[in-house]
Design goal:
It is built from two helices and 28 strands. The strands form six sheets. Strands 22-23-24-25-9-28-27-26 form an eight-stranded mixed sheet. Strands 2-8-7-4-5 form a five-stranded mixed sheet, with no helix packed on it. The chain has a four-stranded antiparallel sheet with strand order 10-11-12-13, with no helix packed on it. A hairpin with a 2-residue loop joins strand 14 and strand 15. The longest helix is centred in the N-terminal third of the chain and has 21 residues.
Length: 358
């Protein structure tokens, strides 16, 4: 009798465990109280109005529309077809999440989300480069950052072979020789560098660290941490400007590395991702687009791409057995611009041709 009782208990536990998986979910067929009147994500050029249509299909108490968590509008006891007009001039270019939440009289709620993109209203110009001169560059340098400061050329490299080859260095412009350097172990993969004041900043790819050195002797001063990957780095004299491989660029405090603001980089067609090495040139951000021969010229205030620079000529003449184009350095004192690539044997002084004019 006791054995039979035990079997009954075990059978009951098995049934209780399996039942939820074989019985239909009573809420899975719930009809939503509203629906968006479009299925795909919406996109519109900056400055134009965007129509967000939806339809209420049952009696509800209240409806709220928000964008990136900020409430745009609400309706009390809405019915039928509704269209909200979003004025995009009040927003930057980029991707935004819109959400509608419906509140029923019984206290329950239902929400749905969509993604909208505000595109640039500028069609980027097509620029190119002319080579002024060719200079030596160490083929052992996997260039990740390149920058002039006080007439001196600084370079930061990565370590694709995990052999402890990441360095920061002062480089002789005419010969390509390393004048002084400081290296990191194989656990660190160096990325973009920039010099602001007396400090040199170096990103790391996946270590989520920004290492800070005294620019005069490369002694370590401090380090900051961040979330995500580190790619390119430059500065505008006030803020550090950082890329992470996406279409986003972050403006960070040089004192705390806190994010001050963010822009998303867009053309009139959509986002430009894989933004790599950065350089601040006469009020604009130049960004290598990784794996391409192109450089994006970006308005730092808006994220709009003003032009793309085709540097195919440099790749053809300077790549050798190296890898992709990566490395832009602007000497603001001489107004000269230099470009190179990863493991390239050459560094080029170039002039930018805007719409065919140098």
């Amino acid at each position: 009798m006791k054995k039979y009782f035990i079997y009954v208990i075990i059978l009951g536990l098995i049934v209780a465990f399996i039942l939820p998986y074989v019985m239909p979910n009573s809420t899975s067929s719930e009809t939503p109280p509203f629906s968006f009147s479009f299925t795909e994500n919406l996109a519109v050029p900056h400055g134009q109005s965007l129509q967000i249509p939806f339809e209420v299909s049952e009696e509800i108490q209240k409806l709220e529309l928000s964008i990136n968590g900020k409430k745009l509008n609400s309706w009390t006891a809405p019915k039928g077809k509704i269209t909200y007009t979003l004025d995009t001039k009040d927003f930057q270019v980029g991707a935004f999440g819109i959400e509608i939440v419906a509140f029923r009289k019984d206290g329950t709620s239902y929400s749905d989300q969509r993604l909208i993109r505000i595109l640039s209203d500028i069609t980027p110009e097509k620029w190119s480069v002319d080579i002024v001169s060719s200079l030596p560059h160490l083929e052992t340098s996997f260039t990740q950052g390149l920058e002039f400061n006080d007439g001196k050329l600084f370079e930061g490299t990565g370590d694709p072979n995990q052999a402890g080859e990441t360095i920061i260095a002062e480089v002789d412009l005419k010969t390509g020789a390393i004048l002084r350097k400081m290296g990191l172990d194989a656990t660190h993969f160096g990325e973009g560098i920039t010099v602001l004041g007396d400090e040199l900043y170096q990103l790391t790819w996946k270590n989520q660290k920004c290492l800070v050195y005294n620019k005069s002797d490369f002694t370590s001063i401090k380090e900051f941490t961040y979330t995500g990957e580190g790619w390119g780095l430059c500065n505008d004299g006030k803020s550090l400007i950082m890329s992470d491989g996406s279409e986003r660029i972050y403006f960070r405090s040089p004192k705390t590395f806190d994010v001050e603001r963010t822009i998303e980089v867009y053309t009139d067609q959509g986002p430009i991702a894989r933004l790599n090495e950065l350089e601040y040139v006469d009020g604009l951000i130049y960004a290598n687009i990784w794996t391409s021969n192109n450089i994006a010229v970006i308005d730092p205030a808006t994220g709009k791409v003003l032009a793309t620079i085709d540097a195919t000529q440099l790749v053809q003449e300077g790549k050798g057995n190296g890898e992709v184009l990566n490395g832009i350095a602007y000497n603001s004192a001489t107004k000269k611009l230099y470009m190179t690539g990863k493991f390239w044997p050459k560094l080029f002084e170039v002039v930018v041709k805007k719409n065919g004019v140098s």
